Amino acid sequence: MPKIPVLEIFGPTIQGEGSVIGRKTMFVRTSGCDYRCSWCDSSFTWDGSAKDDIRLLEPEDIISELDALAPNKYQHVTISGGNPALIKNIGPLVETLNDRGIKTALETQGSKFQAWMTLIDDLTISPKPPSSGMKPNLPILDEVITQCVQDSLSLKVVIFDEDDYQFAKDIHNRYPSIPFYLQVGNPYLDDSVSNHTEKLLEKYEQLIDKVMNDTLNDIYVLPQLHTLLWSNKKGV
Ligand SMILES: C[S@@+](CC[C@H](N)C(=O)[O-])C[C@H]1O[C@@H](n2cnc3c(N)ncnc32)[C@H](O)[C@@H]1O
Ligand SMILES: Nc1nc2[nH]cc(C(=O)O)c2c(=O)[nH]1
Ligand code: SF4
Ligand SMILES: [Mg+2]
Fold first, then answer.
1. Neighbours of 52 (CB within 10 A)
2. Assigned fold of 4-164
3. Which residue has the CA at smallest separation from atom 1 of ligand 3?
4. What pLDDT is attached to residue 131?
5. In this predicted model, what pLDDT tens digit does every residue of 115-126 receive, in sequence order?
6. Per the annotation, where are the binding residues for substrate?
7. Phi/psi at 105 (5° precision)
8. Does the Cβ of 232 fall within 6 Å of ligand 1?
């Protein structure tokens, strides 16, 4: 069985983002990304700085580790990265979790599709706005979205500036029936920043004000709950 390149397994913690924010979950973080976002809060997954920590694991190894970390203390696993959608063989992991009655979530940016993505319960696609320095290929995003199970899907766009906000509106207009989340961008990636909670809440309030005074109506506006609590600390 081909193995999965894993950088982190942690939890239980709360899902800090998107449609299942607040949900108790475990995290499995894969290594490697096809993007290089300027503000990526998990750049160690692709910039080579953690290359010695990458482990090639079988689904059974991953589940044993989840069980050891949280015996009988989890019912939900979030797969993130990097971009887990680069990896063909995550299916057996999701199937084994499903067989055990454990729900799954995926964080990906919508640049790639894998068949196993149809097994995911909470699938978040997060197309990247201009401030990231990336330019999503929208015809490919259309294809990825079409192949996903629509009931499981939500869209999340990170907002740092006005251009990002306009991009988010364009994405929402392109896929009006998919639940749509705006997420406050976190510029404080060095977790030694002082008063991070205050600073992030201020940005959250600014984003709320903007949306309340706009015609963007069928929308959720969220912070990253875990960064409000713990800044950009790893493993939470
Ligand atoms: C680290 S990414 C991994 C999954 C996938 N590569 C993606 O970008 O969707 C997980 C989520 O964190 C978001 N994110 C990354 N850096 C961020 C930052 N500095 N502020 C706010 N959200 C950020 C991404 O947009 C994505 O929604
Ligand atoms: N608590 C917590 N919630 C998260 N939601 C998405 C995350 C990610 O890095 O994909 C993340 C994370 O790293 N931690
Ligand atoms: S797509 Fe996700 S993991 Fe990749 S660089 Fe961007 S935020 Fe980071
Ligand atoms: Mg994160």
1. 6
2. TIM Barrel (3.20.20)
3. 35
4. 99
5. 999 999 999 999
6. 14-16, 29, 80
7. -130, 155
8. no
What token pair was written down for 111? 């640049």
Query: Strand order of the sheet with strand 220-222?
Result: 55-57, 4-14, 24-30, 76-80, 103-108, 122-125, 153-159, 180-184, 220-222
Closest Cα to residue 179, out of 212, 152, 210? Answer: 152
Q: Is the CB of 39 under 6 A from ligand 1?
A: yes
Model confidence pLDDT, tens digit, residues 44-96: 999 999 999 999 999 999 999 999 999 999 999 999 999 999 999 999 999 99
Structural contact between residues 31 and 82, judged by C-beta atoms closer than 8 angstroms: yes
- Ligand nearest the Cα of residue 33 is 3
Q: With 0-12 CB in 10 A as exposed, 13-18 as middle and 19+ as buried, what is 67?
A: middle
Q: Answer whether 65's CB lies under 8 Å from 114's CB.
A: no
The dihedral over CA atoms of 124, 128, 129, 134, expressed in degrees to the nearest 10, equals: 180
Res 134: pLDDT: 98
Whether 41 lines ligand 1, by a CB cut-off of 6 Å, is: yes
**119 to 19, 97, 105, 108, 173: CA distances (angstroms):** 17, 10, 9, 14, 27
Q: What is the C-alpha to C-alpha distance for residues 114 and 7, in angstroms, rounded to an integer?
A: 20
* Ligand in closest contact with the CA of 81: 1
Q: What is the pTM assigned to this prediction?
A: 0.98
Both tokens assigned to 236:
């939470």
Binding-site residues for S-adenosyl-L-methionine: 39-41, 82, 126-128
Which residue from 135, 15, 157 is spatially nearest to 75, judged by alpha carbons? 15
